[in-house]
Amino acid sequence: MTEGQTPEPESSFDEDGFLKAMSDLNPAVVQELADKNDIGPLTEEHWRVIEFVKEYYQTYGTGPPVVKIGKTTGLSRDEICTLFPCGVVRGAYRLAGLPRPPGCF
After folding, report:
1. Is residue 81 annotated as part of the catalytic site, yes or no?
2. Is 78 helix (H, G, I), strand (E, B) or coil?
3. pLDDT at 48 (0 to 100)
4. The whole model's pTM is what?
5. What is the C-alpha end-to-end distance of the chain, expressed in Å?
6. What angle do CA 67, 68, 74 make, to 5 degrees?
7. pLDDT tens readout for residues 39-63
8. How far is the C-alpha of 96 from the C-alpha of 51, rounded, in Å?
9. CATH number of 22-95
10. Where are the domains of the chain?
11. Could you tell me how far CA 80 lies from the centroid of its own chain?
12. Alpha-carbon distance 54 to 48, whole Å?
């Protein structure tokens, strides 16, 4: 670092692109994650899934299965897969601020 430069802010993301802390989650971060993962533009359906996944995790300490996401949001499995083509974990979980599940990747 040269004189007059400010240090780079510490990254909020781990090496797999998941947030290090759910408290860092905000709409701008969600959009950044969506852009990095070729998801979107984010629609009302995306946000419905993201909010459900986040609330489920905060209640149960684990991410919900896709069947539960579908039943709660009213979206079919195919619709969820279309919204998050990289998968529920790499898409919805990541955008909801959940940590990477053990054994994933």
Report:
1. no
2. helix
3. 96
4. 0.80
5. 35
6. 85
7. 989 999 999 999 999 999 999 999 9
8. 7
9. 1.10.10
10. 22-95
11. 13
12. 10
